[in-house]
Amino acid sequence: MEFWKAILGLLRRILIGPPLILLSILVGGVVYVVLPAHYTTDVSLVLATPVNGGTVNSDKTKQGLTNPFLSFNDALKTGASIVILAMNTQDVWTELGAPKDGPTEITIDDGRTNPNVLDINGPYIYIRVDSESPRQATTVLMAARERVATELFKWQKTLGAPPNTFITSTDIVPPSQPEADHSVNWQGAIGGALLTLFLGLGIAYGVVVRREPRQRRRPELAAPAAPPAPAPVPIPVPVAAPEPVEAQASEPAELPVLDEDSSATMEFPAYRAGPLSPVPGPRKANQDDGEK
Question: Are 46 and 125 in contact (CB under 8 A)?
């Protein structure tokens, strides 16, 4: 799916699609003109018995006439098949002017290649010639037509048939005028145009795929280095004031008990906690001095 999208994208490009289409049309036109046109011509024959029939009667007074239209039978079809087999050899075609791998082709059959023949069970001989020249096509067709009569006469003479009973060949459809057949030209033109289009798209697709990595790298190398973005200014966040911690009453520290025998107890008396004697104020001291 991606491939066809890329192909459609190439066709839409102004520098790729329209020039490639014009080139394909040009190539198709050149091929159409260069290829020679083919001309076809044909003739249809039928074998018929003579009016006197196929048998010689010794009594001429009793000899009757026979309608050839009432004499079509399998014997005539067999005779037509023999002539067709004798004509369909490469040596005969070469003698008629249609050598192997040449520009002229000849077809000889019982009418099965002729679309106008509805029933091929009759003693028909159909000759068709295809050539690049209308004159050559007509020449080969007339030579093949005469060769059919020659082969038919030769085979009957070889088999010892009486001359007055010889089968004859008659034209059902006379030789036609050569008609130009441009089907080969159209086939070549269409094939050349399509081949040019697909080949051009393939080359363009390969070039575009190779250039994409380079085009991606070039902007990175050519573009100037962008200045560093300024560092974001930190926004001061209000900090809640710490809650006052209630002072807890500290428990009285336990004093160590000193030993009386130590030197410390000898120099410094041990402290004993007890009530302190009141200190006399100044007024009381003055009264005591007056009493004395």
Answer: yes
Task: Work out the burial of residue 128: count CB atoms within 10 Å of its CB; fewer than 13 is exposed, 13-18 middle, 19 or more buried.
Answer: buried
Q: Which two tokens stand for residue 282?
A: 């100044």
From first to last of its 292 residues, what are the pLDDT tens digits of the chain?
676 777 777 778 888 788 888 989 999 999 988 888 889 999 999 888 887 666 666 555 555 666 666 667 778 888 899 999 999 999 999 999 998 888 899 999 988 888 887 777 888 999 999 998 899 999 999 999 999 999 999 988 888 888 888 888 889 889 989 988 888 889 899 999 999 988 888 888 887 777 766 555 555 555 555 566 666 666 665 655 555 555 454 555 555 555 555 444 455 455 555 555 555 555 544 444 444 4
Long-range contacts of 69-72 (CB under 8 A, 24+ apart): 72/48, 72/122, 72/123
DSSP-derived pairing of the beta strands 124-131 and 105-109? antiparallel
Widest pairwise Cα distance in the chain: 220
Cβ pair 87, 147 in contact under 8 A: yes
Instruction: Give the gyration radius of the chain's Cα atoms.
Output: 63
79 Cβ neighbours under 8 A, 6+ residues apart: 47, 123, 152, 155, 167
The token pair that represents 181 in the structure block: 């057949």
Phi, psi of 119 (to 5 degrees): -130, 120
